[in-house]
Amino acid sequence: LLFLRKRRNTLHMLANSGDLFFGKSSGWEFASSHFSGRARVFIKEIEHAMELGPAKQCPLREFLTMYIKNIFLNQVLAEINKEIEGVTKASDPLKILANADTMKILGVQRPLLQLLCRNRTSETLSFQMLHLSSYSFFQSIVQSDEKLVISASWAKDDDISRLLKSLPNWSNMAQPKQLRPKREEEEDFIRAAFGKESEVLIGNLGDKLIPQQEILRDVSDLKALANMHESLEWLAGRTKAAFSSLSATQTMSPGQDSHASMEHLPASEQILQTLSELAKSFQEMADRCLLVLHLEVRVHCFHYLIPLAKQGNYAIVANVESMDYDPLVVRLNKDISAIEEAMSASLQQHKFQYIFEGLGHLISCILINGAHYFKRISESGIKKMCRNIFILQQNLTNITMSREADLDFARQYYEMLYNTADELLNLVVDQGVKYTELEYIYALNLLHRSQTGVGDQTTQNMRLQRLKEIICEQAAIKQATKDKKITTV
């Protein structure tokens, strides 16, 4: 009993250091296996003196095992439950962040949830709390009226999730820029990847108007998701480290000192499997949070820009109104800026870049596709659209610190509408094909709806047929030029 009293503090420290988060059954086994090496040596000496075989244990070993299992661990679990109750009584425990001193001690660059960093509980409470509440917290943010918001639905979709993770901007997060494989025409490669993402997102949403309840308007929720991502990823790393540490004890060399072997008994397969599954589940949830953030910014673009084309009036005369930015564009810029401010404080730089890279390409695609929905557009309306594009480009450039050339592409598309329908066809011949056939069709049809004296539908059909011929001719010229270069080489 005196021995137990002396060792109780050691066991208590062991429990509070996070070694018992696996659960009650495996926890007592783990505590027993890490019990004082001196005690185990003492017990072995007794068993040797009593000439007990491998199948028998001395009463002292049985007593200690039962004490740890039935008494000590119950005390530890009671203390853990008390800590959990204390944390959950906070008004919003999963939005409370660790202070700067704690972050410095942990060596992290961005804030972590405070419940991960409580001094007395360490990982014990962290694993318990996050295992129980991280998913419900995630659901409470991304779910509205028993329905997931669009970004969460997309992140949950296997096809979209798989596509996003296959794109270079996702894989680039795991590699410093200088270590990434160099490709010829890197810019075109990245742009093609962004094009694939934009195509899938536009294809999934179509021309649907998005109601406010299907987006996350509260920036504090987005910030909480970012904090959750960083915390879960940090915890996944800690879990993997624990897994590696325990795995190492199973590969000890036979020549090691017997006392060292007694101090580090191999961890059970159950514990290792639990750790591996925990690390995987934490990382998957962290990835899901980041994908939701990436997609949510894009859903905001759809939310504001689709009604701009479908409901906006751009058949306006030159007046003061035509010089103003569209209110929807102003609100989108305001949202993007607020999200940028929250993400820059909550996410590491490479993840921040992941949120906003390619956003200009998507906005460009939405605006160009919007030509299909305008009833009519005047020269003043074209000018207003170009001003809208400019202010969006300016805002994104300040965030990404790049030119956002894709928005130049959208501006040039609308500037093309200053021409008549026949002039547009000549422009394609002179400058080559810059847009898709469908985008040219949208432009020709919008000009046909907007301008007077452009002929009837038969004339328009002839123009559309001529457009197809021009595109085929341009493709043939391009292929011939390419073949000539190959032959020359």
TrEMBL record:
Q: State the source organism's domain of life.
A: Eukaryota
**A GO-annotated cellular component:** exocyst
**Which of UniProt's keywords are assigned here?**
Exocytosis, Protein transport, Transport
GO BP field: chemical synaptic transmission; Golgi to plasma membrane transport; protein targeting to membrane; protein transport; vesicle tethering involved in exocytosis
**Span of the secretion signal?**
none
Q: Which family does it belong to?
A: Belongs to the SEC8 family.
Q: What does this protein do, in the record's words? A: Component of the exocyst complex involved in the docking of exocytic vesicles with fusion sites on the plasma membrane.
What protein name is recorded for this chain?
Exocyst complex component Sec8
**Protein's organism:** Anas platyrhynchos platyrhynchos (Northern mallard)
